[in-house]
Specification:
With 118 residues, this protein is of the alpha+beta class. The chain has helices spanning 2-17, 57-62, 69-85, 103-113, and strands spanning 26-31, 36-42, 47-53, 92-94.
């Protein structure tokens, strides 16, 4: 309970500083014990421009687990490809209060390697 409260405080602090635009959306992540999710959000209009998760059909069959570093890398590559199709190459990374380590770091680095700038 205490860890979740600390994450919520960190999340609120980050969201006060980070905002997405149509040209440079906010790339936010959520990780559960079994899955990892990412979406690109335009905060000016309040819409999601693209999303990816380890729960999707194409990824789910190829992954051994939806909650490991390999899954995070695959989801990072997937969201980068979807944003590049829409002509978006730069994003603002929102780690959503999570420590930049493990799955969060793997997702971010694979998205960068696939061509996103942040």
């Amino acid at each position: 309970m205490a860890n979740d409260l600390a994450r919520q405080k960190t999340k609120a602090r980050i969201r006060g500083k980070v905002s997405g635009t149509p040209e440079r959306p906010r790339l936010t992540i959520f990780k559960s014990l079994k899955r990892i999710y990412v979406q690109a959000v335009d905060d000016t209009q309040g819409v999601t421009l693209a999303a990816a998760s380890s729960l999707e059909k194409g990824l789910k069959e190829t992954l051994k687990s939806g909650s490991n570093i390999a899954a995070a890398k695959a989801v990072g590559e997937s969201i980068a490809a979807r944003l590049k199709e829409k002509g978006i190459t730069a994003v603002v990374f929102d780690r959503n209060g999570y420590v930049y380590h493990g799955r969060v770091k793997a997702l971010a680095e694979s998205a960068r390697a696939a061509g996103l700038q942040f």
